[in-house]
């Protein structure tokens, strides 16, 4: 879940080399061809504005084949009311099926009862939780996920090989996740309890101050990762849970990288073009490289504050790849995590449109398969247990 993000501290033009990447060159060449075929920029822009994922699949068999070959996963989503709605707001499984994706990492925010989106669109803690409140809240949300899996016929992803099997069978799949570990309330045994309920992906911190360590949107005064945070990482490694360091400070991530036996996921952010502003949820190139150094993956969100179109989203993916490498970037849309404003990619039926834009941006089919979900698949299979 995201609050409004501040601007980056700009880098002086003299400090940035105006080098073009291979994707920039291919994008320019592809754009010239498209303008010629479409009869001008106005026609092209109009076509892009109305095109859907279904249009892409119908128009281009090669793109359809590429879409079908990808194990596609959104690493961070609150879609269909997962965060707090009493019932799902739409048929999420059907949208995944139509878009020919494989899975979403779907989650509620464990600190949901004590945070609030203010009129300026920032999320702030509004009160302290009662003892046991956040654990009881998480248990209710886990019941919601049980109902979703049953009613929409989702396949739960629980062990290595499950994502591959779901892709093979064209079965919409769910990696059950929780955003923020405030529900632990100092009790490490609860990691195993949510594991038994189907959770396989845990984000350690969120907005509410955590005994795990410092988050990006509050003053950092715990030295990064706390001893309890280290113990929680060890417990996640023991039971077999993907470790997600989204919202954590870089100092926290540095310590987590040393503590974890498995690669880290930073599920949803954007790589800043300069230095991230104070309390920004964006990360520096060095922060992205740190996650990559663990063998991990940085997920790119579809922020309506930072992006205005799917093309902007693909540009943000390219910026993350330039920082961390194509083997260490994925999708982490934060679908439905931006309050009343939808994410710029908020409908999984449009996954083929993302693939089309990535090809136009100059990504190779192999890079697209890695970013779409292959990189997450690698980390998931290294993190969870076979039994």
Strand content: 5-15%
Shape: globular
C-alpha Rg, in Å? 20 Å
Could you list the spans in which at least 5 consecutive residues all have pLDDT below 50?
Answer: 6-48
Q: How many extended strands? A: 11
Biggest sheet character? 9 strands, parallel
Based on helices, strands and strand pairing, what is the structural class? alpha/beta
What is the terminal-to-terminal distance?
31 Å
Pattern of helices and strands: HHHHEHEEEHEHEHEHEHEHEHEHH
With helices defined by DSSP (H or I, 4 residues minimum), what is the helix count?
A: 14
Mean pLDDT: 89
Helical content, roughly? 40-55%
Commentary on this structure:
By secondary structure, the protein is an alpha/beta fold. Helices cover 42% and strands 12% of the residues. The strands form 2 sheets. Strands 1, 2, 5, 6, 7, 8, 9, 10 and 11 form a 9-stranded parallel sheet that branches. Strands 3-4 form a two-stranded antiparallel ribbon. Helix 4 packs across helix 13, helix 10 (250-259) packs parallel to helix 11 and helix 12 (310-324) crosses helix 13 (351-361).
């Amino acid at each position: 879940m995201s609050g409004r993000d501040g601007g980056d501290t700009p880098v002086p033009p003299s400090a940035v080399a105006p080098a073009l990447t291979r994707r920039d060159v291919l994008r320019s060449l592809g754009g010239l061809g498209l303008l010629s075929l479409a009869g001008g920029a106005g026609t092209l822009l109009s076509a892009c504005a109305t095109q859907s994922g279904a249009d892409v699949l119908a128009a281009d068999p090669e793109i359809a084949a590429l879409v079908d070959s990808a194990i596609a996963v959104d690493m961070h989503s609150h879609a269909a009311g997962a965060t707090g709605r009493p019932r799902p707001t739409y048929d999420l499984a059907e949208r995944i099926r139509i878009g020919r994706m494989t899975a979403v990492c779907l989650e509620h925010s464990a600190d949901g009862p004590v945070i609030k989106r203010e009129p300026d669109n920032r999320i702030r803690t509004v009160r302290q939780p009662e003892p046991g409140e956040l654990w009881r809240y998480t248990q209710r949300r886990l019941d919601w996920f049980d109902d979703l899996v049953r009613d929409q016929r989702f396949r739960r992803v629980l062990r290595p090989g499950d994502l591959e099997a779901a892709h093979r069978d064209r079965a919409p799949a769910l990696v059950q996740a929780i955003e923020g570990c405030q529900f632990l309330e100092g009790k490490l045994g609860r990691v195993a309890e949510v594991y038994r309920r189907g959770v396989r992906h845990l984000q350690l911190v969120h907005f509410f101050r955590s005994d795990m360590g410092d988050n990006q949107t509050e003053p950092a005064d715990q030295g990064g990762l706390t001893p309890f945070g280290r113990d929680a990482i060890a417990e996640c490694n023991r039971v077999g849970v993907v470790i997600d360091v989204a919202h954590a400070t870089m100092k926290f991530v540095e310590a987590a990288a040393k503590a974890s036996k498995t690669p880290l996921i930073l599920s949803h952010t954007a790589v800043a073009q300069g230095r991230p502003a104070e309390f920004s949820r964006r990360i520096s190139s060095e922060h992205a490289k740190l996650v990559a150094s663990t063998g991990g993956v940085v997920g790119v969100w579809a922020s309506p504050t930072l992006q205005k179109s799917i093309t902007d989203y693909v540009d943000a993916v390219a910026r993350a790849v330039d920082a961390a490498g194509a083997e260490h970037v994925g999708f982490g849309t934060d679908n439905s995590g931006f309050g009343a404003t939808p994410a710029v990619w908020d409908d999984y039926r449009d996954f083929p449109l993302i693939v089309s834009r990535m090809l136009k941006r100059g990504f190779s089919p192999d890079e697209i398969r890695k970013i779409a979900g292959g990189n997450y698949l690698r980390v998931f299979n290294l993190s969870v247990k076979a039994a």
